[in-house]
């Protein structure tokens, strides 16, 4: 009996102290003779190893970690990351294009083989990237992530796949993916916070009725979303702020959509995040906006908007038709289906 207990304790101690022994090798395209690659632990944002290059090859590098770790590569002296692969037991084989900043291939260990379809599809969804096809890309990405989570419900890979693609899905889709995780992974702080955000967003997900919000119009008078939504027209709500560079950069596209589709039954309404009315109106004038605005509203608590720019398309009866991270081109592709035109 004593011998059995001692053997069990030794086995547990060995498991607890188990380490990952990895070897990294592969090829690097478009590298300079002086290039060095840093291996970054994505979660800790710290350097775990350094790769030397020679004649387009990674000089094989071995190392040890306490546990499997999801990593990125960084060209030394640069700021961008090349995402992502897993350091785990075994030989990790990578093919990298430094000019494009992408992993062309990852192989050699189980997690990398399962992660590869997601990384490669994200980098190249098939042919030249077409913003108008973003909804198609999102649906295919969801299928890939779903497969990864089903294979890896209780290790780092499942939760990682959900987290890096979360903006591609609706809240309902995101919650369904989290539900596929093991209880241990679902209870991680990262997944708990994501679930809380998604639960709020799911109440105003695609297929749900709109929720009213109120604020201040461009004339300084009270205004509400219900003055536009649910009144027999399609309404595109553009969530933005005066301090949001990407929001302002794509505003000409939103203005062009409004101009070309207003006579076909589309109304565009701008909704700003919390900021002084004068800041919003100053930016609206500088941008030359002509469509209605709702300033000083509560899009975060009403629609769970946590990142901008963001777009929501409402149907004539107020039903939410689209609400996910999509480009103006993807929104227009949907409008073409609904309203017709060129």
Question: Could you name the key traits of this structure?
Answer:
single chain; about 350 residues; alpha+beta; Immunoglobulin-like; Glutaredoxin; 3 domains; 8-stranded mixed β-sheet; 5-stranded mixed β-sheet; 12 helices; 15 strands; elongated
Low-confidence stretches: 1-17
- State the end-to-end CA separation: 81 Å
**Proportion in helices:** 25-40%
What is the mean predicted local confidence, pLDDT? 90
Total count of domains = 3
Helix-strand pattern: HEEEEEEEEHHHHHHEEEHHEHEHEEH
* Strand portion: 25-35%
What does this structure look like?
The protein has 342 residues and is α+β, with helices and mostly antiparallel strands. The protein is 37% helix and 27% strand. The strands form three sheets. An eight-stranded mixed sheet has the order 6-5-2-3-4-1-7-8. A hairpin with a 6-residue loop joins strand 5 (69-75) and strand 6 (82-87). It is elongated, with a radius of gyration of 24 Å. 32% of the residues are buried.
Give the SSE layout.
Elements: H1 2-16, E1 20-29, E2 36-41, E3 46-54, E4 57-65, E5 69-75, E6 82-87, E7 90-97, E8 102-107, H2 110-123, H3 134-151, H4 156-165, H5 171-179, H6 183-186, H7 189-202, E9 214-216, E10 222-224, E11 234-240, H8 245-249, H9 251-261, E12 266-272, H10 277-287, E13 293-294, H11 299-303, E14 310-314, E15 320-322, H12 328-339
Parallel strand pairs: 1-7, 11-12, 12-13
Antiparallel strand pairs: 1-4, 2-3, 2-5, 3-4, 5-6, 7-8, 9-10, 11-14, 14-15
